Give the backbone structure.
Amino acid sequence: MFDTASLLLTAPELILSIGATALMLVAAFAGDKATRFVSAAAVALLALAGLSLTGVAGSGGTAFNGLYSADAFGAFAKVLIYLAASVAILIAPRWFEREDRLRAEYPVLILFSAVGMGMMVSATNLLSLYVGLELQSLAAYVLASFMRRDSRSAEAGLKYFVLGALASGILLYGISLLYGFSGTTEYAGVAKALGDGVNLGELFGIVFLLSGIAFKVSAVPFHMWTPDVYEGAPTPVTAFFASAPKVAAIAMLVRVSVSGMGTATHDWQQIIIFMSLASIVLGAAGAIGQTNIKRLLAYSSINNVGFALVGLAAGTEAGVAAIMSYMAIYVVMTLGSFLCVLQMRDQTGAPVETIASLSGLSQTNKGLAAAFAIFMFSLAGIPPLFGFWAKFLVFEAAVKAGLFPLAAIGIAASVIGAFYYLKIIKTMYFDEPETRYARGDSLLEKALIATSAAFIVLGYGLIPALGSASAAAAKALF
Amino acid sequence: MSGFPILSLMILLPIAAAAICLFLSDQGARWVALATTALLFVLGILLWVNYEIGGPQWQFVENAPIFGRFAWALGIDGIALMLIMLSVFLMPICVLASWDAIEKRVPEYMAAFLMMESFMIGVFAAQDLFLFYIFFEAGLIPMYLIIGIWGGVERIKASYKFFLYTLLGSVLMLVAMMYMVATAGTTDIPTLMQFNFDPAVQNWLWLAFFASFAVKMPMWPVHTWLPDAHVQAPTAGSVILAGVLLKMGGYGFVRFSLPMFPDASATLVWVVFGLSMVAIVYTSLVALVQQDMKKLIAYSSVAHMGFVTIGLFTFNRQGIEGGLIVMLAHGLVSAALFLCVGVIYDRLHTREIDRYGGLSNNMPYYALFFMFFTMASVGLPGTANFVGEFLALVGAYNANSWVAAVATTGIILGAAYMLWLYRRVAFGESKNADAAAMPDLNAREWVMLAPIAAATLWMGIYPESFIAPMRADVGSLLARVADSTPASDAQLQMGKPKAAAHGEAH
């Protein structure tokens, strides 16, 4: 009765879902006293799930008759997701302690979200894709409004939910069209059906499917929710939104485009190119006027999604490898930036979010300013920081695929993006100090900032390792 | 010396020193920076002494493929050697120039300068296309901070302008580089210099590289970031900007544009000539009306760079060697002129020409040095600029006599604005009491200015020391572009001997 082989292949999801259910019981009975234990256990579960990827779950092949694929591509994305989820759990307690204690459901919700994201990146069937996506999203809606008494947080959650539900509807409609015209929901089957020419119904299906996913990756023109949700959600949750679900959604998009619609590349390539360029330009231009650091980072994430999509537009194996490297570097840069944002609190401990409050930080807190500057220069793609390498790879893939206009316009638009990253550095380094932040007292957060900054500065030594891992991930799809 | 990774040492040493500086006191950081830059100068001399003239084209070669996709590949030819020498020569002087002038956040300042030095050496020593790009771009970060933190009143606008202009130029070059690597299958610069790209594609690649180098150089009309950056930067920042960073553009033309795209260089030579002629005449005229000393020298830099670009694209030996010598000479002379401005700026805190006057009365030694560098900038025989500009113009005449004629007016205009500047600052009555009360050069300023004056004279009187290491490299460049050299407008024809005169029979 039990399909043992398939169960083994889905080991990370099993570990996480059984563990999360158990922890939920702990949380329900022990209450918020157990938060520390639940958090620690959740991180341990994520580590365990990550470890299980070294076995058959990282390279085993298809499970449950083609619903799920355990391959190097999924494993690569899952490592990033679990890493980002762990960080999101670790940085939460100090942020929430100001209002009241962190509630024990927080780590559990992150775990459920991680299960959903694991499903998203490993799904090889449109329905398992949808189930994974919904699991991730439902947890995310709750997380966005996790500060019940804060109206901005509640607004963020509601907005995210309404728009997310709309996107899910669009996505499902696309799936139903593809199913109706190809007779299957399996990626391989859809690809086969698209192989003999794309008819109008299938084309509509592709467009709706991509639109739904574009909402999840917050690519222009489906990006409007991002700044509001990022601003309103509690900062640790924003850090989580900007990292793990982004990786999952991009990886899901890559897998469904390449293995599900790889036979009709020309039909979706132009959509991706448009989304990519629009995200780069709008993400950059929209950020210029922002005064809130979280909104600015939201636009930065839109901008970055645009760059990642350049790799997908290439549609080649090198392009997919480039996206995976991009996401790995992006996750570190983003988490690092949000960790710096977490340190922005006034003398009473209340969080500060205005960019203006950063002025003169380099004189009041040298270490934090240096780390923040490293992340900003890196996000702007200035060598010798590692963010340059991420952009380099995707554009190289585009050039190799012959997409010269895309590469030239995209890379020229990255200069617009550089402007607002520079604005933050200018505020920190050139302006005179106004406000003083409370000294950060969390050794853990400092260590995380230092580690990610070191990764960004010294990352070039890791290029061979990162390159071969992402190449293996890309190979799994082709 | 063979086998010792001296270039890696020269790149990594300042980075390490920069990291140390950040944790020191103000005075400690100054001394560490001075010691490091002095040590690098010694290493530079070792490099020059051990450079084998007439030896292999690429010397001190290192290659460690540690980055997977590209390599830590270093090596220099004579041109790179000379530019590295220029950098390491100017750096200790910059540190001295900042000794008292920079009062706030000294450790960070010195760290930024040391990082700058590392990246400059890296640019000239890189033998891998992407490694070159990384160093080329990385230099933006410290310079942005130097202008923005320690600059003048308008520093923020200037720093943005500097950063974004240069970045926009460079990213297009990056796309071209990716294409080249995809086509040629290697990132090795010496190999690429011999690779024949499809002539139809060459034009696009050339233009992409041109976008970057023309901004860096800077050429008219993309020079507008330079006056702002120069005026707002602290003295030492201007020195490095004028002395070395501008030379990266010229270096790029010699290293990339000419040997890698010879056909495109020949096809598009009119672009270079046209823009350079405009630059020489127009920016010289603009320099004439400036009220701000630094701005005047900045515009004169743009004009001088016009000689460099004309010289480099003449496709003949005199022109290219002349262009290279102008690069070195301008590196010395404009750096010295900015130092001269810095000397009096430190005393009076204004750069406005009208606030000075009659300085030769109370600052005779200063006036002497200023006079010497003014003459050098004008191109007086016996100074470095004369050698370079003369050769460049000879080369230009061989290539196109109109270009030579227009460019030569730049010499006259240069004399006009520089001599007028000197007259207004150093001669005449002492109009302002505070300017008349300024003390003459102190020992530190002597140590800064005297070596540059000596080097300028050396290059002017015995340029062979500087041309000799570059001669073979110019030769191989000429051999590379020989097939595509555009026709000269000097159409020499062998004359016929006159028929014998009638009266000869007598």
In short: Chain A has a mean pLDDT of 89. Residues 362 and 369 of chain A are 5 Å apart (CA to CA). Chain A touches chain B at residues 362-363, 366, 377, 382-384, 388, 392, 395-396, 399-400, 404, 407-408, 411-412, 414-415, 418-419, 422, 425-426, 429-430, 460-461, 463-464, 467 (CB under 8 Å).
